[in-house]
Amino acid sequence: MVGYTEKIKEIASRLLKECTVDMVIGFRKGTMPMMNEPCFATTPEAIDTLVWDSNCGINLANYLTNRKEKVAVIAKGCDSRNIVTHIIENKIKRDQVYIVGVPCTGMIDKRKITGMVAGEILGVSETENTIKVQTADAETLFDKAEVLQQNCALCIHRNPVIHDEMVADAVQEQTDVDRYADIRKIEEMDSEDKWRFFDDLLSPCIRCYACRNACPLCYCPTCFVDEAKPQWVGKGQDPVDVRTFHFLRAYHCAGRCTDCGACERACPVGINMRLLTRKLEKDCQEQFGWEAGLSLDQRPALDVYQANDPGAFIK
Amino acid sequence: MELMGIEPDRLHFSWISSAESTKFVKVVKEVTEKVKAIGPNNHFIKDTAKVA
Amino acid sequence: MTLVKIDKKNWAEGLKAAADAYRLYGPVKGKDYHQFKALEKGETPEFDMVNTRLSPKALLFPQSEEMLEYSLDESREDHHIMKAVARDNTPRAVIGIRPCDAKSTLLVKLNFDTPEVKDPYWLGAYQNTTFIGMACDAPLSTCFCTTAGCGPYHEEGLDMLVMDRGDAYLAKILTDKGKAFADAAGWKAAADDQAAFESGKAAAEARMVSSIKTDNLADTDLLELHGAPFWDDIAFACLNCGTCTFSCPTCWCFDIQDEVHGKAGVRMKNWDSCMFPIFTVHTTGHNPRDTKTQRVRQRFMHKLKYFVDKYEAGIMCVGCGRCVRQCPVNIDIRRVSELMNSFKPADACAVQG
């Protein structure tokens, strides 16, 4: 992905100059290592701040919801699948969004890297396949493959599925990926162990809702946890309430989640809530042969009835 | 629900027409037997809110 | 002010002795980061960390706290009476709080302890607590305490300040509370090494790489700043999650909820956040702070302008940098304060806002 930045600036500049769009949504360089900030550009100065590297893990489809302007958006594979979902769910019109596709080789996991080096990380630079991490005392070189976000390591749709223009030639898709090894491990536990596993997984949750708010699917005007009439969930830190939030949110994403990983990346306390969403993704895959956001012409699995829908669980 | 640790036999789905009274009886019997077999539910019960 | 030297061999022992008279709290490593929690018997606080992920504010202001309770069970003498929940008022001590976090308690106190209103929950906890600070010799690149009204050896809000001298700790006793704790811990070896504090402080301050400027905030017109043209740009990335406010040591907003369980119930307070849309929703359904930009502006205006004007006690920020590090989309208060502080109303478009 080295070299994408210049191409993105060039495209953004042309789109704005030719009035193809009113604004370009992308990333600008963050103030911390391994962080970039989503931003919009409408001026040449703002275009100049746009960047692309392995720290663009936030899903920009999230910034398209209910937009009125004509916008261009820089989209990785997962973002593009969420844009498809957005279009299907009428959150944005196809002709209103100009998709600048980014063939993606994965985003790096800032928490994993932080855990792999001693001391504060002061700088991170990258080449196509390596990540160089600098601390006050040392410089460490990693293979990019070993420090990818887990969702990126498991990704099988790195190239945008929908685009108006591409930043570069398509990258090779990963094959022979076992997407659900960790889910199967949980499935094999007995009920008590499963319960304890999720109690432990969710115990650090502070209910800041960063996971929900980073998720492009979570666009409800009022989330069920915020409803007051009736109030569905307690607002305190009771584990039952915390769990209710997490598993119901996962259900709401069933058949829609593209495993972009924005939820896990956003979480300030490092909860892997993707274990819930990916179970539902796995079920959709196994039972309906459905993967979210691949085509504008297909209705989502949970949106349609088909005679061969699995029904063995209904007695 | 099962993944989260709710026992599989605690949740049942059935499609019963209003005319299928015998099926209704059969299903209710089966469900109660299965739920009795796994005993009382210990999870997802909130007595007094735990605070932290 | 007295100085005492604590041999590291006597550190754990002293804490053990103090534990007879105090409930001890300190930073402990959880799954993959440090946080403040009650120390088990014999457990010592861990200082081998960059900082705690969340601030220790929850020690005085728990995320979720029961205030009142009642029961409708008529067999109880006190049925149908809403009364205060019993609280443990025995003394406690926080070991190893950073000077920035200690200073933050004084800013929060301005809200919970006023001449007119006193919050018994926060104040009760505050008064029972002795703050044993650990001087900060390794500030992070995101720390800007020295330009946010405190510093790595700042003493405000502390009862004792401890510095690490390699084989020993050197403790500066700042208050009677601090003296009482030192007595309980049996730390008595008088020392006369004020210079060590001075040089430690100078060295730590020299390691600070981040700073902010706040000198123009008080004099800038409030409405002009409110209508400044940069708010949409700052707010664009914001997800409106509560990470910044929940990790902030000075954010004090809460929401009150009643929870009913059969015939009994409690009234509790839970952390709330100005980032959440429902924070300001009226019962009519009207929301005066309906847009993301309005909410983000509120957070920064409160910290860097309204608070400054109202209390004349500096900014409502101690420069711990937690919001900078935790924000999922990298909204950086250092950048925002720079924009706010350098803002010249004349440059602004008159129709903004």
The protein's oligomeric status is: heterotrimer
Give the SSE string of chain B.
H
Q: How many whole angstroms does the radius of gyration of chain A measure?
A: 20 Å
Compute the number of helices of chain B.
Answer: 1
Main beta-sheet annotation of chain A: 6 strands, mixed
Query: How many structural domains of chain A?
Result: 2
Query: Largest interface, counted with CB-CB under 8 A?
Result: A-C, 40 and 41 residues
Main beta-sheet annotation of chain B: none
Rg from Cα of chain B: 15 Å
Short description:
Chain A is an alpha/beta fold. Chain A has eleven helices and nine strands. Chain B is mostly helical.
Give me some keywords for this one.
heterotrimer, A: 315 residues, alpha/beta, three-stranded antiparallel β-sheet, C: 2 domains, four-stranded antiparallel β-sheet, 11 helices, 11 strands
Can you describe this structure?
- The complex is a heterotrimer of chains A (315), B (52) and C (353).
- Chain A has 315 residues and is α/β, with parallel strands linked by helices.
- Chain A is 32% helix and 14% strand.
- Chain A has two domains: 1-106 and 155-177, no CATH class; 178-310, no CATH class.
- In chain A, strands 1, 2, 3, 4, 5 and 9 form a six-stranded mixed sheet that branches.
- In chain A, a hairpin with a 6-residue loop joins strand 1 and strand 2 (36-41).
- Chain B has 52 residues and is mainly α.
- Chain B has a domain at 8-38.
- Chain B has one helix and no strands.
- The longest helix of chain B has 18 residues, at 21-38.
- Chains in contact: A-B, A-C, B-C.
- At the A-B interface, helix 6, helix 7 and helix 9 of A face loops of B.
Q: What is the topological layout?
A:
The complex is a heterotrimer of chains A (315), B (52) and C (353).
Chain A (H helix, E strand, L loop, with lengths): L3 H14 L5 E7 L6 E6 L2 H5 L1 E2 L19 E5 L1 H12 L8 E5 L8 H7 L4 E6 L3 E6 L3 E5 L6 H4 L11 E2 L14 H7 L3 H12 L7 H5 L24 H14 L9 H5 L7 H15 L27
Parallel strand pairs in A: 1-4, 4-5, 5-9
Antiparallel strand pairs in A: 1-2, 1-3, 6-7, 7-8
Helix pairs in contact in A: 9-11
Chain B lengths: L20 H18 L14
Chain C lengths: L1 E6 H11 L4 E7 L4 E5 L25 E8 L11 E2 L7 E6 L1 H14 L7 H8 L1 E6 L25 E5 L3 E6 L2 H10 L8 H13 L15 H5 L4 H5 L7 H5 L6 E8 L2 E8 L20 H20 L10 H5 L6 H9 L12
Parallel strand pairs in C: 2-6, 6-7, 7-8
Antiparallel strand pairs in C: 1-9, 2-3, 4-5, 4-11, 8-9, 10-11
Helix pairs in contact in C: 1-4
